[in-house]
UniProtKB/TrEMBL annotation:
Pfam families: Ank_2 (PF12796). The keyword Nucleotide-binding does not apply. This is Ankyrin repeat domain-containing protein. SMART domains: ANK. ANK repeats lie at residues 133-161.
Length: 210
């Protein structure tokens, strides 16, 4: 990796160095090499939230997009080390790409339970954040038929509320209905029934408390 010289860089030099650092960082994130990730970021040419491609994916988005075997402890530790390596370099768990997607969207899409668990257990994680198209991480998990991801998201506050609607008018129930996974269809139906019952109960209790 080309290291930046100590003197002030010209715009053209900065462009070249930034490109080199971007290529190295992307490769290190793909290979989950935490030491190399730190080496790149310590020069402060890039941060954990710097866009690394044309759609604005940053280091966390890229890492969240990796598929990690949660039963392989070595892989789990490598992934956790990479997540930890971003902590000191401007990590923002709710940062979005140019389409409004955050790390939860990417992790939910590929079934990255290790990353999802780490994000969901971090204070301030916006579990119901919607992309520009209106999709939530729960919708992505349902769309990809991943039951463990759906369950994990719901356990950490993800909502199946039909008021969360995409730009094409689809809500969580629509995604579940379209899913070929019957377990997801049944599970979401139960969740929706529970949420609706809870809302009705709250509505009945309010007049009594006034």
């Amino acid at each position: 990796m080309q290291q930046p010289p100590k003197q002030k860089l010209s715009p053209e030099q900065l462009k070249v160095v930034t490109q080199k650092h971007t290529e190295t960082l992307l490769d290190s994130l793909k290979k989950e090499e935490s030491d190399n990730i730190k080496k790149v970021l310590k020069y402060k040419i890039l941060t954990a939230t710097s866009p690394l491609n044309k759609v604005g994916l940053n280091a966390l988005h890229t890492l969240a997009s990796n598929q990690v075997n949660s039963e392989d402890q070595n892989k789990v530790e490598m992934h956790q080390n990479c997540l930890a390596s971003l902590q000191d370099y401007g990590l923002d768990i709710n940062s979005m790409d140019y389409f409004g997607r955050n790390a939860l969207h990417f992790a939910a899409s590929v079934g990255n339970l290790v990353c999802l668990s780490a994000l969901l257990n971090t204070d301030g994680c916006q579990v119901n954040a919607q992309s520009i198209g209106g999709e939530t991480a729960l919708m992505k998990a349902i769309q990809h038929g991943n039951v463990p991801v759906v369950q994990l998201l719901l356990q950490h506050g993800a909502s199946a509320n039909p008021n969360y609607v995409t730009s094409t008018g689809l809500n969580t129930q629509h995604f579940a209905t379209q899913s070929a996974n019957q377990d997801i269809q049944s599970y979401i139906a139960q969740v929706l029934e529970y949420e609706q019952a809870s809302q009705q109960l709250e509505g009945m209790e309010k007049p009594m408390s006034q």
